[in-house]
Design brief:
Strand content: 5-15%
Low-confidence stretches: 1-36, 332-336
Mean pLDDT: 86
CATH superfamily of the largest domain: Vaccinia Virus protein VP39
Structural class: alpha/beta
Number of helices: 15
Helix content: 40-55%
Radius of gyration: 23 Å
Shape: globular
Order of helices and strands: HHHEEEHEHEHEHEHHHHEEHHEHHE
CATH architecture of the largest domain: 3-Layer(aba) Sandwich
CATH class of the largest domain: Alpha Beta
CATH topology of the largest domain: Rossmann fold
Number of strands: 11
Largest sheet: 7 strands, mixed
């Protein structure tokens, strides 16, 4: 980072300083939860919380008992140990889900959100049992299944019955084999609200795809990926892009395999999907793809909102961590006022305001183009065209801002209420 004239540091420089964070091994299970939350985990958990509430509140309307289920197939211990001594433990996905379940029980009318956690590590199972045993969560009646999710998935799906279900699969390395995923979570009746939030590990795809195929020692690992994806032809897709020694080609090949997998899921099950790249820092290649598989078009609207808010939290966290890292490395003289938490938040807020204007303008221009050839544009069925390049960055507030701009131009009529179900009409 460079100091500006007058000794001040601009937050956008903090954001875009490509400081490398420690590499996270995809099989380093215990160490991951002991080293505290990394930036990808902060994004993933913000996204999960942001999406859980709209999912359970919307789908509860279609459940006779207002009962909705949440299944975490790779739950972990429930919390993260603090990075620095003196700091509190950070909540993992199980604790975040339990807090959400307790929150929605207080709604009017209340939502009966049931939580099921599956974990293979015995130590993490013990931690989970201790967590769900907290009396504050007793009304939720959470369940913990010990062992690999393959051994319990049939029991869980049978217990859920025809209630709405959101399944969160966030494994280390490879995930639930395709045959189990297809025949369980993706085979529920079409009239039942059902979605899967799968964190596809791009690092694992990249690493396994690049393994020498002629080495017999690599065969079991490669065959596990065959089982995960449900086909061995992914190797051809990967090999067509991967060039040993060429920086970034393995990640590009892994992303192509992930896209091909999503297309196969759509063809075989009818589930659409939207994948969100998760990075360790600005300018880095994606290490994960948080992928929502869904059937109802409204899901994409709500998920895009959740992704946008999670990205905003991630940007703030990057700025705060970079500022703290700079102060530790450069000393604090002359920099305390510039990089205090309050100042960083203020500068981030200014930068966010600029992004708000930019993204609203992009959406407005997209709508101008759509309305030149159409008299009306239903939002939920045309979200990719409406948001364009801002999909995953912008959310409903930016769409509202764009619509206000078009209304002042006399192109559209003002819209109020839930925009996910709205139709944008051109004034003729």
């Amino acid at each position: 980072m460079r100091r500006q004239s007058g000794g001040r540091l601009v937050v956008s420089q903090v954001w875009r300083a490509h400081l490398r964070v420690p590499s996270l091994g995809v099989t380093d299970h215990e160490a991951f939860f002991e080293r505290g939350q990394q930036l990808p985990a902060i994004f993933k958990h913000a996204l999960l919380v942001n999406y859980l509430v709209p999912f359970v509140t919307m789908t509860a309307k279609r459940s006779p008992n207002r009962r909705v289920w949440y299944v975490d197939g790779y739950a972990g211990p429930g919390t993260y140990e603090p990075v620095d001594s003196g700091r509190e433990t950070a909540p993992g996905s199980p604790l975040l889900a339990l807090r959400t379940a307790r929150k929605v029980r207080s709604f009017d009318p209340p939502v009966d959100m049931r939580c099921v956690f599956v974990e293979a590590d015995p130590n993490h199972v013990a931690a989970l049992q201790n967590l769900v045993g907290d009396p504050q969560f007793a009304p939720i009646r959470p369940r913990v299944f010990s062992g690999a999710i393959e051994t319990s998935v049939a029991t869980i799906v049978a217990e859920v019955g025809d209630d709405p279900l959101l399944t969160f699969l966030d494994p280390f390395g490879t995930s639930l084999p395709w045959v189990h995923l297809r025949d369980s979570f993706l085979s529920r009746p079409r009239h039942v609200p059902n979605e899967i939030l799968l964190n596809m590990n791009v690092d694992a795809l990249r690493r396994i795809g690049a393994l020498p195929r002629t080495d017999a020692r690599n065969r079991p690992t490669i065959e596990r990926l065959d089982a995960l994806l449900g086909y061995a032809e992914w190797r051809t897709t990967f090999d067509a892009i991967y060039s040993p020694g060429e920086e970034g080609s393995a990640t590009s090949a892994a992303l192509a395999v992930a896209a091909e997998f999503r297309k196969r899921v759509l063809e075989q099950t009818g589930y659409s999907s939207f994948a969100v790249p998760v990075r360790r820092d600005y300018g880095h290649q994606p290490v994960f793809l948080m992928t929502l598989f869904f059937r109802h078009p409204l899901a994409l609207f709500k998920y895009a909102d959740a992704v946008s808010s999670a990205n905003q939290k991630w940007r703030l966290e990057v700025a705060q961590r970079d500022a703290a890292r700079y102060l530790r490395s450069a000393g604090t003289m002359l920099w305390d006022d510039d990089l205090s938490p309050e100042e960083v938040r203020r500068k981030v807020s200014e930068a966010e305001s600029e992004l708000d204007v930019k993204w609203s303008s992009v959406i407005a221009e997209n709508l101008r183009g759509l309305l030149r050839v159409r008299n009306c544009v239903p939002v939920s069925g045309n979200l990719a065209e409406v948001y364009g390049d801002t999909l995953g960055l912008a959310r409903e507030k930016h769409l509202r801002s764009a619509l206000r701009l078009l209304s002042t131009e006399g192109l559209t009529r003002p819209l109020v209420g839930d925009l996910s179900k709205a139709t944008i009409q051109r004034v003729i």
